[in-house]
């Protein structure tokens, strides 16, 4: 079993999908479980021995380094105690971090834990994830063909990335030797990579950052690292590892469990990690709502598509109402005022850069984040109580707030709505399908499609780099800082009233009517309330 420690919730769903699509039975936990149920009765969280890949989603990316280390070590010890023979540290494909961490300090701590056993080779890592248009060449990380420091990540509100060199970024977070495995070595094959790893280890190197331009490179790295106790990276390298490990795991399954994990949802003890047959189809065509808190350029573009489609939209304004309970109460009252059976609404705090800065100046970044996080959790609980059965969350911290508020401990990894964005089916927890989207993931119409009737269909292949396109691979376009509108006001996204539908949407919505759904709201509304969580993806 490979145990995965992910530094945020949407990163965990992304890496879970990489293992699942390789045919591995994949189980996702939100946080380190306090306990699991051995008999797996209906509604219980399956024990980790039911999975070939077991992922623990933390919310450690934006924590102080010492706290991130403590939580990661707790997850590592739990995974190893429950049978993990390998560990994978999942970090963001844009290497989101600062000079204080948290990637380097967590790697150091995990390396120390494993160093207590037999001698280990250097840790192989790469943020390359070509399916998400992240590639690394000569140590430089490219985002959709643009060096990281020249991409939209340069202006990230929490972790602005102003250096494109991954080895240099990592050296700023650890005192341990870091070297680069260049692309020509990777292209020479897994044996050449293994030889480079052994040579670096003999010279005292602890971390090797590898170039990778396509999925073939990542499979080479995965083959080379298949027996390593610790590897690290984005979902791309996880997919390469899964390609190497899946045949081994399949060979050890009982005969009745061979094939894709969906064909053997439970295994002999009823403990599979795939979506039980038919469950997704029963849940997904159901009342939906979108909660958007990410301020990433792509999420703002996706939100703009929803507004252009005339979706009912409510903006969460922590400056006008800084009390989380009151902010949530107002949002749920607005939801209750919508006509039954109408299109799925969106409730959002996402904001373009100028508006974001205005909120942070007014409240302070930490307070604004805490207010919005708690309010988002209360709103998610209230929506589920009112009959919403498809909940789409945009942003890692937004997703964390939703999962925590709903009391979801884990669940089955379902089919993808977009690359890196699978549907999740909580076990135990409310009977609701969750789509937890990283801020930068998905085509512009993803939120509209996912929240429309039949929105579970995966039509979002997204642009992908070709094998010979070099470090600038990929043909997708970056997103501007606005939300489908030219303005960047401090009072709201232009064209969207704080408590109503998008005002005067342009007539052309690029020909996609998926946002103009009907029958997506439940016909009755009970009440609201519940608890909160943590923030970092918003002001």
TrEMBL record:
<feature type="compositionally biased region" description="Basic and acidic residues">
    <location>
        <begin position="249"/>
        <end position="261"/>
    </location>
</feature>
<feature type="compositionally biased region" description="Gly residues">
    <location>
        <begin position="471"/>
        <end position="481"/>
    </location>
</feature>
<dbReference type="InterPro" id="IPR010737">
    <property type="entry name" value="4-carb_acid_sugar_kinase_N"/>
</dbReference>
<keyword id="KW-0547">Nucleotide-binding</keyword>
<feature type="compositionally biased region" description="Polar residues">
    <location>
        <begin position="488"/>
        <end position="500"/>
    </location>
</feature>
<keyword id="KW-0418">Kinase</keyword>
<dbReference type="InterPro" id="IPR031475">
    <property type="entry name" value="NBD_C"/>
</dbReference>
<comment type="function">
    <text>Catalyzes the ATP-dependent phosphorylation of 3-oxo-tetronate to 3-oxo-tetronate 4-phosphate.</text>
</comment>
<feature type="domain" description="Four-carbon acid sugar kinase N-terminal">
    <location>
        <begin position="2"/>
        <end position="240"/>
    </location>
</feature>
<dbReference type="GO" id="GO:0016301">
    <property type="term" value="F:kinase activity"/>
</dbReference>
<dbReference type="Pfam" id="PF17042">
    <property type="entry name" value="NBD_C"/>
</dbReference>
<dbReference type="InterPro" id="IPR050007">
    <property type="entry name" value="OtnK"/>
</dbReference>
<feature type="region of interest" description="Disordered">
    <location>
        <begin position="446"/>
        <end position="539"/>
    </location>
</feature>
<feature type="domain" description="Four-carbon acid sugar kinase nucleotide binding">
    <location>
        <begin position="289"/>
        <end position="447"/>
    </location>
</feature>
<feature type="compositionally biased region" description="Low complexity">
    <location>
        <begin position="504"/>
        <end position="517"/>
    </location>
</feature>
<keyword id="KW-0808">Transferase</keyword>
<keyword id="KW-0067">ATP-binding</keyword>
<feature type="compositionally biased region" description="Low complexity">
    <location>
        <begin position="263"/>
        <end position="278"/>
    </location>
</feature>
<feature type="region of interest" description="Disordered">
    <location>
        <begin position="247"/>
        <end position="278"/>
    </location>
</feature>
<dbReference type="Pfam" id="PF07005">
    <property type="entry name" value="SBD_N"/>
</dbReference>
<dbReference type="InterPro" id="IPR042213">
    <property type="entry name" value="NBD_C_sf"/>
</dbReference>
<comment type="similarity">
    <text>Belongs to the four-carbon acid sugar kinase family.</text>
</comment>
<dbReference type="InterPro" id="IPR037051">
    <property type="entry name" value="4-carb_acid_sugar_kinase_N_sf"/>
</dbReference>
<protein>
    <recommendedName>
        <fullName>3-oxo-tetronate kinase</fullName>
        <ecNumber>2.7.1.217</ecNumber>
    </recommendedName>
</protein>
<keyword id="KW-0119">Carbohydrate metabolism</keyword>
